[in-house]
Amino acid sequence: MTLAALAKPAVLRQPVYEPGKPIETVARELGLDPATIVKVASNENPLGPSPRAVAAARQALEQGQLYPDGGCFALRQKLSERHGLSPEQFVVGNGSNEIIELLGHVVLGPDDEVVMGVPAFVVYKLATLLFGAVPVEVPMRDFRHDLAAMASAITPRTKLVFVASPNNPTGASNPGSELLAFARGLPEHVILAFDEAYAEYDDQAPDLRPLIAEGRKVIGLRTFSKIYGLASLRVGYGYGSTEMAALLNRVRQPFNVNAIAQAAAAAALDDRDFVARCVSENRAGRARIAAGARALGLECAPSAANFLLIRVGDGARWFAALQQRGLIVRPLQPYGLPEWIRITVGTAAQNERLLAELAALVRTA
């Protein structure tokens, strides 16, 4: 008997997440010098982490023989100060991805429904399928969530609704007032999981705290992987009511967030000047790429995040051609957008190189 025969049938049907290729892999496959490769595929912060975060991580590593604080006390205290909520209203995870999975552990079972936009972050669907629930996918409108259509898709079997603004992979955001109205219109049996992975880049991001104060069943999902530049350490968090956090903490694994990640994240929250610089440089770089792409005759979707969608015709071909030139971007055929590529805003020098390579491909197209 094979191992597959012993596995639950749902496991054999479970899709596998396909991450962007690391620089080292591309260099090895294409015979390129890793130092010459620019990765603008995974929406990482090109400025890296805050120097304060790096110093805190190094200091924490010196106590690497000790287990981390299983309750993330110091980090939750910092988050409490930042958001004006009590520490008991936070749950910290191994990236915000883990919080999504914890929601599934708490509320999802076979045949429950989860409403989500499409195209959106694929982990919403993966987590839904993992628990035997049914993903209900609602097409985007103008790269944004169609909130009216999502509301209409809710049934008595709906347990969760996922909304991300700005949305990944499209980059566009819904107006904050519309998102708050949507949340207030949800029925009592539905939890809103509002993904704020890119909220720090968005001028019109809504404030969820009034919803929480009103007793709404809402959880905000945030990450230190994007603007804080700590993607390699995998730390994120959710916040909502104390009851929401307590339920998620019941199903959380002990020591799920390592001590180095906790220390770096807490220090990163203190470095507001670094975050302000990241926002400013991203805004300038995003505008530069959008203008440069349009000057080349390429369509560029609106974005409030740290990445842009560019319509190139054959996304897979352009992805391969750019990779041969030492630029790693994200092809979007798996998201149902075969004519588009997603490009992370890089440093000023990286952005200029990107535009130069795009121009070279346009000339040879």
Structure description:
It is a single chain. With 365 residues, this protein is α/β, with parallel strands linked by helices. 42% of the residues lie in helices and 15% in strands. The protein is built from 15 helices and 13 strands. The protein has helices spanning 3-6, 9-13, 23-30, 51-61, 73-83, 96-107, 122-130, 147-152, 176-184, 209-213, 242-251, 259-270, 272-295, 315-324, 348-364; strands at residues 38-39, 90-93, 113-118, 134-139, 158-164, 191-195, 218-223, 236-239, 299-300, 307-311, 327-328, 330-331, 340-344. The strands form 3 sheets. A 7-stranded mixed beta sheet has the order 2-8-7-6-5-3-4, sandwiched between helices. Strand 9 (299-300) and strand 10 (307-311) form a beta hairpin. The model has no long low-confidence stretch (mean pLDDT 96).
Number of helices: 15
Strand order in the largest sheet? 2-8-7-6-5-3-4
How far apart, in Å, are the first and last alpha carbons? 53 Å
Task: Specify the oligomeric state.
Answer: single chain
Q: Major sheet, described briefly?
A: 7 strands, mixed
Which structural class fits the helix and strand makeup?
A: alpha/beta
Topology as a string of helices (H) and strands (E): HHHEHHEHEHEHEHEHEEHHHEEHEEEH
How much helix is in the residues?
Answer: 40-55%
Share of residues in strands: 15-25%
Look at the structure and give the mean pLDDT.
96
Principal-axes shape call: globular
Number of beta-strand segments: 13
Key features?
15% strand, 365 residues, 7-stranded mixed sheet, alpha/beta
